[in-house]
Write a structure and sequence with these properties.
Layout (H helix, E strand, L loop, with lengths): L1 H7 L6 H16 L12 H29 L5 H26 L17 H12 L2
Helix pairs in contact: 1-4, 2-3, 2-4, 3-4, 4-5
Length: about 130
């Protein structure tokens, strides 16, 4: 049982967070502020996107370390738990931060016309808490 849990916790590496980040970056490239500038040109927006990107990279590296230990024949018990916890907490924090970045328009559901990032960030936000369990 312990071995199964060890390998169960060692996957992922934050790929969900990366997908949500990519969707938000695409939104920031195309969305305009009231003065006509792109959202991506705002330093606060770039800083928040960079913070999420940094967390994505840390999660990826934790996942790679876990995979390397398993490849060497070890059991990545602690490392797998660290990677899983970091990835799930990062996903929840990133979804919250990115949804806040979208503003009130970000609350539009997936599939609604004119929903920023196609509504995927709002969708991910509603499901992020489940992944921490």
């Amino acid at each position: 049982m312990t071995v199964a849990l060890t390998f169960e916790r060692s996957g992922g590496g934050g790929s969900e967070t990366r997908r949500v980040l990519d969707q938000c970056v695409e939104w920031a490239r195309t969305a305009r502020q009231a003065d006509g500038r792109r959202m991506l040109d705002d330093p606060v927006v770039r800083e928040r996107l960079a913070r999420v990107a940094t967390d994505c990279e840390v999660g990826r590296l934790l996942g790679l370390r876990t995979a390397w230990i398993a490849h060497q024949g070890g059991l990545p018990g602690v490392e797998g738990s660290m990677a899983k916890l970091f990835a799930s907490e990062t996903f929840q924090r990133a979804c919250s931060d990115l949804l806040d970045l979208l503003g009130p328009e970000g609350l539009r559901h997936h599939g609604e016309p004119d929903a920023p990032a196609g509504g995927w960030i709002e969708h991910a936000y509603r499901h992020a808490a489940v992944g921490t369990i």
